[in-house]
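Re: weekly structure request thread

Next one in the queue (205 aa):
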Amino acid sequence: MAHGRRKRDSIHETPDVSYITNPDVAHEESDVAVRPLLWFVGGLTAFTIVVCFAMWLMFQYFLNREIGQELKASPLARQGEETLPPEPRLQLSRGYGVTTDDGMRHDLSYDGAHDKVPQPESEYTIVHGEWMQELSEYGWADEKAGTVRLPIDDAITRYADSLKSKRQGQAPPQGQANATGAQEAPKGQTPSNSNAGQQTEQKHQ
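Done, posted below.
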């Protein structure tokens, strides 16, 4: 029977759309137009270079104009170190430095030529290095008087050896003898009381 046959649902069939045409609508051939973008980037780069070069020329013009208008200093004006403020100066400022015992002047300002950038603790570093050199090396303490400076370890060793040789070859000093007598005095008596008792016994005899 025709009525008993089940009709197929239309949603499962692909409709025929070949008759539909719209020439104004089409898909994109590429996501981005590369050529116009490259032209824009290249033009922007060239424009930036031209502007920077023009700014450099302008600053050079202003600099040369100011140098040409600057007046020469008077021969009576202060020059060199005369223009520096009196000591003490601010750390790292122009003219700031430290003079070691050997007479060498160490410039610790930003204006000077240095292997390392000066820091606020640079003065302590130089002075500490000088102290360590004096404690670890030979040198003149007073060259005119003929006094030589010894390393601290060598000086301690020689001083200890000299004290040891004196104690072995000589009697103890008077101060050590009094200290020994005070230790050997009877309990309850001071060294002065012990000496006074010995003098009284000698008088009675």
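The radius of gyration is 50 Å. The helical segments are 34-69, 122-136, 152-169, 174-184, 191-204.
Next request, please.
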